[in-house]
Amino acid sequence: MELLLLVGCFLFVLITVLCGGYWFLSKPGTREPLEPAPVSIGLNQDDGPIRQTLEKIGSIIPPANDLEHPIRNRLMAAGYREPDALQAFFGIKAVLALLTCLGLILLCLGMQLDFLTAVVAAICGIGIGYLIPERLLKMIERRRQARLRQALPAALDLMVLSLEAGQGLDSALLETSKELRRVYPDLSEELGLAHLEMRAGQSRADILARLAQRTGEAEVRKLTNLLLDGDRFGTSLGPALRNHAQYTRVRRRQLAQEQARKTSVKLVFPVFFLIFPCVLLVTLGPAALRLMQGLSQMMNQTAP
Questions:
Q1: How many Å apart are CA 165 and CA 172, to the nearest integer?
Q2: Where are the domains of the chain?
Q3: For residue range 2-39, what is the model confidence (pLDDT) as tens digits?
Q4: Model pTM score
Q5: According to the CATH classification, is domain 147-261 in 1.20.81?
Q6: Which of 11, 31, 92, 188 is the most buried (most CB within 10 A)?
């Protein structure tokens, strides 16, 4: 009974921490309905006490104070541009590693295992708890990149309309960001941030390069290269963007067809390992039972 109680407490704490970390990572910040300006939140009184505690714990870890840490780029690609996002992320890693370690130690004590087994379980718990947030971050990053990739054709069409109406690239980015605010908020934030950087007087080449690096999406990088080439050579962006929008739609259709063709191959393993044994059991099971009964009767008859 005590063992079941310890296991239940450990699973409850682990699931609670995982849900809290996923909730934190899935809420980059509130979005205003009209202004395309991104949200930048630091360690202040507006943050909750849990986040402040996580940021303070994460600031103790040396990699969390590195401005050039690669995880910071991954956090930006996932939509977290807050200055203290890296500290909060490392705080989540440290807290989850500690809780997982304590949970496994309690489990070993409840099972009355030896000291060496408890030490090995504690080390494994630290490693597992420390790596789980990175897996969640990778999953959120991929989902956001997929949303950006899905929003590109509509954004390109709006940019073509704005450019052919006589607006400049800065105004086209602003109008596209406003129109995409409710439907595709992720791409709207990125374009709005690029527009604000242009208004600040920064170089357009640097802004577009940061846009591609910030998102980490290959299709966005192709778009920024197209805009850079048009700005460098002075060519008309309208036809080029229209062709690129058509290319993105064709590419998305091809990816969908590729995934559809892979489905039949992926179904081989569940069919072979799950469905096929059940079919054999249903079809050959009665025959095997009758054969065993017949053999047992024959052996009984031949026995002296």
A1: 10
A2: 2-143, 147-261
A3: 555 556 666 666 677 666 666 655 554 434 433 444 43
A4: 0.70
A5: yes
A6: 92
